[in-house]
Design goal:
alpha/beta, TIM Barrel, 8-stranded parallel sheet, 8 strands, globular, binds flavin-adenine dinucleotide
C-alpha cells in the first residue's frame, strides 16, 4: 500500500488561484470580523440601509459579498466557476435567498433552482446542485407537520403543493443525471423534511445517489437515525446519499429550546459533535455498498479522517461515492490540497440579490468571528501566504 501523505499545510497550493490583491482583500475582510459589534449588528443594519435605499450596495458587493458569493445572478458566477474548475474544484450553485413565506416566492425560487440544474447539466465543473427546504416551503407549515398537528384542508393542499415542489427538483436532477443536496435547517422543521427526502431517495436513488439528505451531527441521536435509514434502504434496495455537517444554527436552536422550555436537541459539547461527525463518516465507509457521502466541513481533522479511512479501505481518491465540500471563500487549504491529490472536492457558491443573501453573509461573519476555532485560521493562513509570496519575490 502507498503511504498516506495527505496534508493541508501547503498554502502555495491553497491560494494559487488568488492574486496578491485578492489575498489582501480577503485578509482585510477576515480582519473586520474581529469586531464583535460589527458582526452582531452589521448584517441587520446593512439590510435596513439597503431597504431604505442608502447607497451601500457597492461597498457590500466589493467586500463580504465578493468574499463569500459568486454574483447576484447565475451568469455572474461564471468566472469564479472557471477558476475553481481550473484548480480541480467543482461548484455547487447555491441560490441563497432566505426568509420567504409566500407561495409566489416559492414558485420563483423553484424556477431558479431548476435553472441551476439546467446550467449544471452535462458540465463536469458542476458535480452537485442544492436547495434549502425553506426556499420552497413555508416554515409554519413544516413546523406544524413536525409537531404532529392536524392540517386543515387548505393546509393539506399546501402540503401537497410543497411535496410536489420537492419532487419537481428530484425528477429534474434524476432526468439530467445531476446530484442534488437537500440542505438541513432547524430541528423543529426537520422531521417532515426527512420524510419527504427519504421518499425522494427511495424513488430516485436507484443504484447510485442522486438525492443527498443532510445530517446535522451537532444534534443528538442522528447516528441512530442514520443506522435506521441504512437498514430501511437495504430492505427496500435503494442507495442513500448523505451530506454530513455539524450544523449551522446552534444559537437559534438554544434560543428556541430555552424560550419554549424543552431540552436542547444540540450535543452537550463540541467534542460530542466531533465524535458523532467522525462516527457518521465511519458508518458511511462501512456501508459504502449502498451509501455515498459528502463531508461538508471546514474541519481539517474530520477531512483527514475520511481521507485516511478511504486509504485504509483501498478506496481510490476519486471514487465517485466520496466527496468533500467547503463553502466558497473559506478553508481553501482543505479544498485545494485535497483537489491537488485527486479527491472529489466541491464548493458551495452562493449567489442572489445582495439584500436576499444578507442572512447567509451574517452567518459567515458569525462563524469567522471566533479566533479560537478552525475558522479563525483563515486570517493567519492568508497572512502566511502573503509573507511567503513576498519572500519568494526577494
Ligand atoms: C459544504 C457545506 C454544506 C453545509 N450545509 C449545511 C446544512 O445543510 N445545514 C447546516 O446546518 N449547516 C451546513 N453547513 C455548515 C456546517 O454545519 C457548520 O456550521 C460549519 O461547517 C462549521 O462546522 P465544521 O464541521 O466546519 O467544523 P468545526 O469548525 O470544527 O465545528 C464548528 C461546529 O461545531 C459545532 N459546535 C460548536 N460548538 C459546539 C458545542 N459547544 N456543542 C455542540 N456542538 C458545537 C457547531 O455545529 C459548529 O458550527 C455546511 C457546511 C459546508 C462546508
Amino acid at each position: 500500500m502507498q503511504p498516506f501523505n495527505l496534508s493541508f499545510s501547503n498554502i502555495k497550493v491553497a491560494f494559487k488561484h488568488m492574486s496578491d490583491a485578492e489575498l489582501k482583500k480577503a485578509k482585510f475582510i477576515f480582519s473586520i470580523f474581529k469586531f464583535p459589534l460589527l458582526v452582531k449588528f452589521g448584517p441587520s443594519i446593512s439590510t435596513f440601509f439597503l431597504k431604505i435605499g442608502l447607497p451601500i450596495k457597492g461597498l457590500i458587493k466589493n467586500t463580504v459579498f465578493w468574499q463569500f458569493c459568486g454574483g447576484e445572478t447565475i451568469n455572474e458566477c461564471d468566472e469564479t466557476v472557471k477558476t475553481l474548475a481550473k484548480n480541480g474544484v467543482g461548484t455547487i450553485l447555491d441560490y441563497s435567498v432566505e426568509g420567504h413565506d409566500k407561495e409566489s416566492d416559492f414558485d420563483n425560487n423553484l424556477a431558479e433552482i431548476k435553472n441551476t440544474i439546467l446550467k449544471a447539466t452535462g458540465k463536469a465543473e458542476y458535480p452537485f446542485c442544492v436547495f434549502k427546504p425553506t426556499g420552497i416551503a413555508r416554515v409554519a407549515l413544516l413546523e406544524k407537520l413536525d409537531a404532529g398537528q392536524k392540517l386543515d384542508s387548505e393546509e393539506l393542499h399546501e402540503y401537497y403543493t410543497l411535496k410536489k415542489r420537492f419532487d419537481v427538483l428530484g425528477a429534474a436532477a434524476a432526468e439530467h443525471k445531476m446530484r442534488l443536496f437537500v440542505d438541513a435547517e432547524w430541528s423543529w422543521i426537520q422531521n417532515p423534511v426527512d420524510d419527504i427526502v427519504n421518499e425522494m431517495m427511495a424513488k430516485y436513488n436507484n443504484g447510485h445517489a442522486v438525492i443527498y439528505t443532510t445530517v446535522q451531527l451537532y444534534r443528538k441521536g442522528r447516528l441512530e437515525l442514520m443506522k435506521k435509514w441504512i437498514n430501511e434502504a437495504r430492505e427496500k434496495k435503494y442507495t442513500l446519499g448523505f451530506k454530513l455537517v455539524r450544523g449551522a444554527y446552534m444559537e437559534k436552536e438554544a434560543e428556541r429550546a430555552s424560550k419554549m422550555g424543552y431540552a436542547s436537541p444540540i450535543q452537550d459539547s463540541k467534542a460530542d459533535s466531533d465524535r458523532d461527525f467522525d462516527q457518521a463518516l465511519k458508518l458511511c465507509i462501512e456501508n459504502r455498498d449502498i451509501v455515498s457521502v459528502c463531508a461538508g466541513t471546514h474541519n481539517e481533522e474530520s477531512s483527514l479522517y475520511l481521507a485516511k479511512m478511504m486509504h485504509e479501505a483501498g478506496i481510490e481518491n476519486n471514487d465517485p461515492r466520496f466527496w468533500f465540500a467547503q463553502l466558497f471563500g473559506m478553508s481553501d487549504t482543505i479544498s485545494f490540497n485535497l483537489a491537488a491529490q485527486g479527491y472529489n472536492v466541491v464548493k458551495y457558491l452562493p449567489y442572489g440579490p445582495i439584500k436576499a443573501v444578507m442572512p447567509y453573509l451574517g452567518r459567515r461573519a458569525q462563524e469567522n468571528s471566533s479566533m479560537a476555532g478552525q475558522m479563525g485560521r483563515e486570517l493567519s493562513l492568508l497572512t502566511q501566504e502573503l509573507i511567503r509570496r513576498k519572500k519568494e519575490k526577494i
